[in-house]
Amino acid sequence: MKILILNCFDKPISTLNDHLIKWSLKNIPQENIDIKSFLSEEICNENAKTHILDFLNPILLSKAELDSIFENKTLTDRQKYTKMYINGLAENEKELFQQIIKNKLGDWEPDIILGHAWETPSIILQNLYPRALCLSQENAIFCRPPFPRTLAYDPFGTLDTFFNRFAEQIKSLKISKNENKIIENFKKNLRELINKNSPITKELKQYKKHFKKTILCPLVGSDAGERFGLAYYKNDFDLLEYIFKALPSDIGVFVTEHDATGILKGETLEYFRNKYPNFIFLDKTNIKGYSSNSLFYFDAVDAVMNTTSKTGFTALLWDKPIISLAYKYNDLIKDIDGVENIEQLWKKPIKNKNNILCWYFSNYATTAQDAMKTDFLLKFFEKKLMTFRTNGITFEFFDKVNDLEKTLDFILCNATKYYEKNKKADFFEFGRTTVLYYCSKGEIKEHYKQKLKNYVSNL
To answer: Which has more confidence, 443 or 147?
Structure first.
């Protein structure tokens, strides 16, 4: 099987090593695959020193070559990234890019074209290699402690996803009594585990006394809305202004931030605290950088807002209604759009979405346990490729890939072991933050640099 990796822009080399090698390709027998990868100039230069990515047989895509395809020569790297993978290249730009790829690969044609995260290869290469299956690899529902990593391979990308294109079919699925029981048991045990290890149980109870209802708002990054074009807002600041201007003051909003980026500090944090009495930002989880810190809020709130975060799916494990703050992304799981008509939400009965969870864990997500099997991913790719070449991408593309009960047991067992091993999350997070600080750069590095200072001062 011929696999092409597409990564045209700079990112920490450790990210590629983690995702594309450790969890995807490392355990496939070498004799069964022929890999080539397009990597940026910076990554190729770094790999020439470390040789971490030699396994991917890197092909240099120089900055000059990449820049040559864009008509607008004033675009920043971030704008180029967005144009290539999200907004779409102009037809002549796409043709120039495809010609560069074709010249470098010659007669070699891939069976699988694999992108990581927002890098959706189908947008730019599907018509060049129509028989190739384009997949975007991205974190699935769990990717941070206390959980094991889960991954998904989506043929449409990580924004306009398979599960949203086929939302109505998934929502109409019927599950057996046994499947429903398995999911209910998992939800019960998971809630008990998280509540037992929560550092903010008392604080949440105190805040809830002051409000008629409470909602969780997990932020995903300051410019995600503008960059991806899916959300109702351009940045996190505008999102919060929209929420608090639209909501009545008797609805408390717990706000959490992504552990790699955030705006709620200094004057910005004081602005929201002073202007909106129902704005709640707990330093105990956010400043100390608890991984997956939104977990500790699910049990206490009455609903969860979601933009383009996996917290939307996680909230289903607590049976929480979802308020969508993004176009398309939450079509499968949402109960209402926006917060203007919030009162309608409280009048609706809570939906049982166990059929969605059943499909997601059985058919869509793969686990770290899967990645460790030497034959799993190869068979997964082979089956998906055959399905694609026979029927295209239909709802049946994702059939059952995992045993539901074994998968959920594996996830719960790993989470339990994590808490048993790390009674003080601060010490684990200190180590994790140190690693991320050293393997990151730019704005992300500065973020972890500050986290590191916070940890040192509190240890």
So the answer is: 147
Contact 35, 72 (CB under 8 A): no
CA 107 to centroid of chain Cα atoms: 35
pTM, to two decimals: 0.88
Rounded to an integer, what distance in angstroms lies between the CA atom of residue 89 and that of residue 83? 6
Find the angle CA(270)-CA(272)-CA(276) to the nearest 5 degrees.
125
d(CA 413, CA 315): 20
Strand partners, 37: 5, 58
With CA atoms as reference, report the closest residue to 318 among 281, 288, 350.
Answer: 350
**With bands split at pLDDT 50, 70 and 90, how would you rate the model's confidence at 206?**
very high
Q: SS3 of 2, please?
A: strand
Please choose, from the candidates 284, 272, 204, the residue with its C-alpha nearest in 3D space to the C-alpha of residue 236.
Answer: 272
Q: Bridge-partner residues for 36, per DSSP? A: 4
Supply 6's token pair.
């597409």
Higher pLDDT, 427 or 379: 379
Closest CA to 81 of 165, 8, 158: 8
What is the per-residue pLDDT across 18-54, written as a single tens digit (0 to 9) for each?
A: 666 777 777 787 788 899 999 888 888 888 988 888 8
Whether the CB-CB separation of 184 and 453 falls below 8 Å is answered with: no
The closest alpha carbon to 299, from 375, 198, 218, 442, belongs to 198
What's the pLDDT at 85? 83
